[in-house]
Structures are given as structure tokens and as C-alpha cells.
Write a structure and sequence with these properties.
Number of domains: 1
Distance between the termini: 50 Å
Strand content: under 5%
Number of helices: 11
Shape: globular
Length: 286
């Protein structure tokens, strides 16, 4: 229960879904099988993130609809492909270490960008064109595959592109990513319940127990971000990413080879995100 209090609040207030908290706790601490944890993540987010999205839309919070449309298009394809062809091949522990290492590298890159004296940000993608449509769809495709493994991922993965490359304000990108993950999680829930029929009794019981919690705390998180400045939202994200990484290291106790993989992922991720940050688009101030 306590896990879902924090998880659902984070799901509504950041580009991280509640599965970013629930998945490692359930699989590593509570020893719940990864498929059960993933299916529970889709189920519980279908309630919590839908509630948060309805609040965002109802309050007319500023979002980037081009981002939402084209990432969702790619994400649907990625989720379906990943569910059937990628998930059976993935080691849960290695995947989780890759997950937390990559997002930590993004957090470092975003902190570096925000520490600059003058960082220009926008409330939408400037000069949106067909190349942007393709770029967002490709990132959505990859993000959808990530979500098929963990029950979350497309939101934070595409949030990286929005804030680092497109320089869209965290205050706009965050609620936009919540809506994207809502659509993705509803599809994931449908796939596992109706198509694959692998939604276990254990997942169902966990879901029913946690619904009253997430239906309150996820919208509360979404409301809180409407009151915070952009810098405040970024700081919350830094804390989540650092705690997530440290927690995974403590719980998993990685081997030397796994630590080397984490280091390689961290370095490669920093290189990627810093490269994106250096790219200049037509709309950027000179």
C-alpha cells in the first residue's frame, strides 16, 4: 500500500509512471514474479493515470498535443511488438539495471542544462514539421517497447527528447507525458487481459486492493505540478532518478559485470543526451 501511495503520486506529478516505483519493489523486495508485477502496473496505472489525465484535461493544463499524438502513434506499435517479440527474451534484472542507469544519465544531462545561466525553453515544439513527426514516432516506438517490459517507460524516454532536444518546459512536458502513459497503459491492460489472457488472480487481487489509493494520489500529484515552477518539477525528477538508481543498486547488489554494464549505459546515455542538447534547431535562439 505504501509503495502505491508514493508510486501513484509520482505517476501524476512526474514523467515516471507508478511502475517505476512498484516494479522494482514488487520484483526485488517482495519477490513477486516480473509478469505479475508488469501486469499489475498496467492495471493500476489504468486507474491512477487515467484519473490524473482527466484532472489535467479538466483543469486545462498546458500540454503539447503534437508530442502526445505522434509519440502515441509510435508507442502503440512498440507496445504490441515488444509484448509479443521482446519481453520473452529479456532478463528482468539486467533490464532494470539498464533502465535506472539510462534515466540517471538523463537526469544528469538535464541538471547540466538547467544549471546554465540562460536556458531558453518553450511551451511547445517550435516550427513543427514532418521530420519532427517521424522523430517523435520513432522515440514513441522505442518507448513502447520499453513499456512492454516494465509497464512504464515511454513517458520518461520521450520526455528526455522533449526537454533536452526540443527544450520544451518541464511544466508542459510532464503533464503531456502523463497523458501519453495513460493511453499506453490502457492498451497494455487490454492486451494482457483480453488478448493474451495472462492477467493472474494475484495481479487482480493487488489491483483491487490499491485502486482506492491511486485514484486519489495520482490526481493529487497532477494537481501539485500545476502549482510548482518549472525548476521545482525538474528538482523532483532529479531526486526520483537518483533514489531509483541507488535503490536498485542496494536491492539487486549487482555483480562486477552488471556494474560494468551500468557504467557503460550511464556513459553512453550521457553522450546521447548531451549530443541532443548541443544540436541546434531552427527555432533555437542563437
Amino acid at each position: 500500500m505504501l509503495t502505491m501511495v508514493f508510486g501513484s503520486f509520482i505517476a501524476g506529478s512526474s514523467p515516471e509512471g507508478s511502475a517505476a516505483i512498484a516494479y522494482p519493489v514488487f520484483t526485488l523486495l517482495l519477490k513477486i514474479p516480473p509478469p505479475v508485477a508488469r501486469n499489475f502496473a498496467f492495471a493500476i496505472q489504468s486507474i491512477g493515470m487515467t484519473s490524473a489525465s482527466l484532472l489535467i484535461i479538466g483543469l486545462r493544463v498546458k500540454v503539447e498535443w503534437n508530442y502526445i499524438r505522434f509519440v502515441t502513434l509510435g508507442g502503440i506499435c512498440g507496445l504490441v511488438f515488444g509484448t509479443f517479440y521482446v519481453v520473452p527474451l529479456i532478463s528482468p534484472v539486467m533490464a532494470k539495471l539498464f533502465f535506472v542507469s539510462l534515466w540517471l544519465s538523463f537526469g544528469i544531462a538535464l541538471w547540466r542544462e538547467n544549471s546554465r545561466p540562460k536556458r531558453y525553453v518553450f511551451e511547445s515544439i517550435q516550427h513543427f514539421n514532418s521530420k519532427d513527426q517521424l522523430r517523435l514516432a520513432i522515440f514513441g516506438l522505442i518507448g513502447g517497447i520499453i513499456s512492454s517490459i516494465f509497464g512504464t517507460g515511454i513517458n520518461i524516454f520521450t520526455f528526455c527528447l522533449m526537454t533536452i532536444y526540443y527544450r520544451v518546459s518541464e511544466k508542459v512536458a510532464t503533464p503531456s507525458s502523463v497523458i501519453i502513459m495513460t493511453i499506453e497503459t490502457l492498451l497494455g491492460f487490454f492486451l494482457h487481459v483480453i488478448i493474451l489472457k495472462d492477467f493472474s488472480q494475484e495481479s487482480f487481487e493487488l489491483w483491487i486492493a490499491c485502486v482506492p489509493i491511486v485514484v486519489f494520489f495520482a490526481p493529487l500529484g497532477a494537481f501539485v505540478i500545476t502549482k510548482l515552477p518549472r525548476e521545482g518539477i525538474a528538482r523532483i525528477l532529479y531526486i526520483i532518478l537518483i533514489v531509483q538508481f541507488i535503490g536498485a543498486m542496494i536491492v539487486i547488489k549487482p555483480s562486477v559485470n552488471q556494474i560494468l554494464m551500468c557504467a557503460a549505459t550511464l556513459i553512453a546515455g550521457l553522450g546521447l543526451f548531451m549530443y541532443l542538447a548541443k544540436l541546434k534547431r531552427e527555432a533555437d535562439p542563437k
